[in-house]
Amino acid sequence: MRGQLIVSVSGIRDTTGEQARAFAAEMDRRAVPLSLLVAPRLKGRYRLVEDAPTRKWLRARREHGDAIVLHGYDQAATKRRRAEFAALPRHEARLRLMAADRVMEQVGLRTRLFAAPRWNASEGAMAALPEVGFRLALSLTALHDLEREVTQRAWVHGIGEGFRAESWWCHALVMSAARTARRGGLLRLAISAAQLDRPGPRQAMLDAVDLALFHSAVPGVYRCEPVPIARAA
Fold it and tell me: Left, alpha or beta for 208 (phi > 0: left; psi -120 to 50: alpha)?
């Protein structure tokens, strides 16, 4: 059985746009679409509404076949050493989701897909997602179809943004990715755009993609069905 491959990039903003564009070009050459994890606000007073070049590029990528995934509101820790949605009760999560959804609609990038920062969402956040209209939630270990109440198990193999980025980790990621693809599983690769500026992590991600394709994995994106096959959300 042929496996499936999903590649995602997070942390896309004004200071990482060049790296994200270069990586997207590499994926285009391999006919691999991307799932782009986007937050309306980021550290350093970054605001997506004030970043026209990034908005334009993201919209063009979605038209090209990529998927847009909401990746939190501002990614600020709501509790010490916890990611934004990792410990939120239902009501607070709903307020943040509504605020983020409004911004994404305003900039023409609204999506029904959600991945919490560091892939960690509390029970309250998971309960709030369908109330705000989200249909697919992505966690560290699974894809959760919120409409059909179907869960597909698959781990994220990541570099940066909660994952390590040392050379030994990159090597282990490539080997693990190859095993998953060889066995015909769903391979979820993720990298922070900030890490794409480093030769080691960038090459490790390219190697993992190439090995997955060598083992006949079918490239795709996250979308609102239980089984993620190539199509943008």
Answer: alpha
Q: Strand, coil or helix: what is 131?
A: helix
What residue ranges in 76-185 does DSSP mark as E strands?
113-115, 136-138, 142-145, 150-153, 156-159
Q: Is residue 232 part of a domain?
A: no
Domain around 87? 4-220
226 occurs within a structural domain: no
Percent of the chain scoring above 90 in pLDDT: 90
Note whether 5 and 220 are within 8 A (CB).
yes
Q: Which of 220, 15, 4 is CA-nearest to residue 113?
A: 220
**Model pLDDT for residues 70-86, shown as the tens digit of each residue:** 999 998 866 666 899 99
Structural domain includes residue 64: yes
* Both tokens assigned to 90: 């239902």
CATH code of 125's domain: 3.20.20.370
Provide the token pair at 128.
């709030």
At 124, is the pLDDT very low, low, confident or very high (cuts 50, 70, 90)?
Answer: very high
Query: 186-192 and 4-10 as β-strands: parallel, antiparallel, unpaired?
Result: parallel
54 assigned to some structural domain: yes
Position 195, amino acid: Q
